Amino acid sequence: MSTTTQRPTAADSRTTGKAARVLGDRRLPVLVTAGLFLVMYGVGLSRYQNYGFAEAQVFLNLFIDNSYLLVAAVGATFVILSGGIDLSVGSVIGFTTMFTAWLVERQGLPIVVVIPMALAVGAFGGFLMGYVIQNFEIQPFIVTLAGLFLFRGLCLVISKESISIGDASVSSMAQTQVSLGGAFLSIGAIVALVVLAAAFYVLHYTRFGRRVYAIGGNEQSALLMGLPQGGTKIAVYTMSGFCSALAGLLFTLYIQSGDPLHATGMELDAIAAVVIGGTLLTGGSGYVIGTLFGVLVLGLIKSLIQFEGTLSSWWTKIATGVLLCAFILIQRAMTSRRKT
Amino acid sequence: MAEPLPVLEMTGIVKEFPGVRALSGVDFRLFPGEIHALLGENGAGKSTLIKVLTGVHSLDGGTITLSGTTVRFASPSQAQQAGVSTVYQEVNLCPNLSVAENIFIGREPTRFGRIQWKRLRREAAELVDRLGLDIDVTAPLSSYPLAVQQLVAIVRSVGTGDADGQGAGTKVLILDEPTSSLDRDEVLELFALMRRLKDEGVAILFVSHFLDQIYEVCDRMTVLRNGTLVGEHMVRDLDQVGLVQLMIGKALDQLEELHDQQLHSDVGELLLKADGLGRVGGIAPFDLEIKKGEVIGLAGLLGSGRTELARLLFGADHPDSGKLTIGGKQVSMSAPNDAIAAGVAFCSENRKTEGLVPDLTVRENIILALQATRGWTRPIPVAQRDELVAKYIKALDIRPANPEARVGQLSGGNQQKVLLARWLITQPKLLILDEPTRGIDIGAKAEIQKLVVSLSEEGMAVLYIAAELEEVLRLSHTIGVLRDRKLVAQLANGPEITTTRILETIASGEHQ
Q1: How confident is the model at residue A22 (pLDDT cuts 50, 70, 90)?
Q2: What is the ipTM of this complex?
Q3: CA of B117: which chain A residue's CA is closest?
């Protein structure tokens, strides 16, 4: 073939410069977020060293205090990677706290029976939303918005007031500490880390995970490439519903009560964590590890503001807003570079 | 010698759409290890035949036999599993995934459900290597240009066989206009790949509007016209003139006439002058003069800056340097609106995404630009509007001649005419045509070229961009040659200018 002999020149013009390669690297946003986390942690160390910031427990508390957010954000990562969005996360979490508290406190069911029930309800809710999105070709935004209202409304059907949980097995589960040398993790944090590892495996080492990326990259192409796309989409929302319910259970353990207003707007925290973690809102690009850093950054902002002492808690929101804005601009710059 | 058995045989294929019989009793056969061209004008039924074969459309009559068994596919993925793969003009892959993954997604090698990445990359690299391509399979697909992505799409469809050895393997590969956005080198690379697959025994169905390409790479061809079979020929038995006659079903007077056409010498006063106009990353600063009634052709490879030059003249991009004078007045173009006001019209090469609004009717599309010049507060009176639209539909022979038809449903050639009508209606002084004949059939092509000639005779200046040098050469008074985003030469057309001469200029980059 005469053309093969000319290949070197053709190949040269194809490979982009090193700088462009680095900027086009999909891992870059995750590294930026990880770097940001380290810088923020370093700032915390230098400012609040004498107030105990350097203790290992302060670091581990980031995982303990944000375990539920991490689980919810992992679910949201799947959805966003597939090019969709799930607004029902916060409501499902809120509903799960109510559902669990009601069954345990008012109906006297043991928590080990309630846990699978709550997970099944969340997963089924996600499945229904996914089914509607896929089969009626409706925007995920609208369908999950309906889910948001539905689950929040169902909270109030269960009870208008909050139900605090006094069940002994629940409290012992909540207070169990898994010791790590001088510091400890809660059960919730362990569960969250297991979920994270499982999500990483599923996304990178299973056909289902790769289909999620493919659909997010180009849904039409994925269809024409013969991938079973409908099932994938439904599975993604089912997974998100499951993660939300699991996050709801962790939240119940963390706060030991059910309340119709629990976790209002937490879907937005989850989405923010995913985006700050470097996942493109348009889908198809991102890593679940980035989501971990996104959650940690959000958690660290809270800790830093607590350590500062004089700042009010709304500064958390302001800082989150600024970060989110900055990260979306970085994403924009990266995607436009990739196109040229 | 007895002919081998065809791998695919379609007999008496009938397909009806409401009100139209798209295919009436078409026979088609495909032998293993051949490249077979499917030819016909737009609307002849080529796409319909392919869609019926691959299961996109259902069959209304006739039989399809694949390797001796009668088949009827319900979906493209079913066809693919049986060994009939299609690669379309648009690349249907996921740009966010790596090349290797694009080749194997949906059939990744797994062990206990875990994807074996090393094996996947190795097998992808082997496949790419076997097909004589030089592609880094670990790089994301988006880091490669469109042409390479298309090659990857072919590699994917060839590797239909499961990585575990299951699946049929591709017997029939359908390439639906794969070359329309490739430049010459890329086409050669594609052809090399096609020949290699042919040697491996794959039957390739090739659809292209470029007749030269058919003659370069194909063994056999089937010609369709108006949904019926005109004939099946070996390529070596039929010359181009004979083929075109078969395709359009009439003698070539119309085309011959154009070949012999003398360029009118009636070039008027200076209309547009560009002085060192340029844009970083777009095109190097250039000087250009365009006179009234002059046709300037731009020649150069795809990506050599032809479109970028045109976009500067139209104000679609903002120049970094230089100045532009139209009709003696210096203009600063910050938006196409300024250009339209100055009498410049631009028919984009990308009629689907940049030019037409597919969901609006022919009438609405035609009237868009005229309305824009008047401003939104002064609507065009209904009677005047309908009269204008009817006039241009007639003048350009837009089919169907129905102003209420949706543009998206028209064939490529007719869409192009609608776009032309839209700009002609504003009576521009300078008409920029960027690849006006790409992807349209030979009859419509000739009509558009004739139109360019008659417009310039009426005193309109035309800037004509086309990939086919013959086309540029035939129509232009002056030929601007571009290379590597630079206007390297401006040649006055004359007997001594030939396509070879232009090619040499493109190759050497020097004005000789």
Answers
A1: low
A2: 0.82
A3: A205
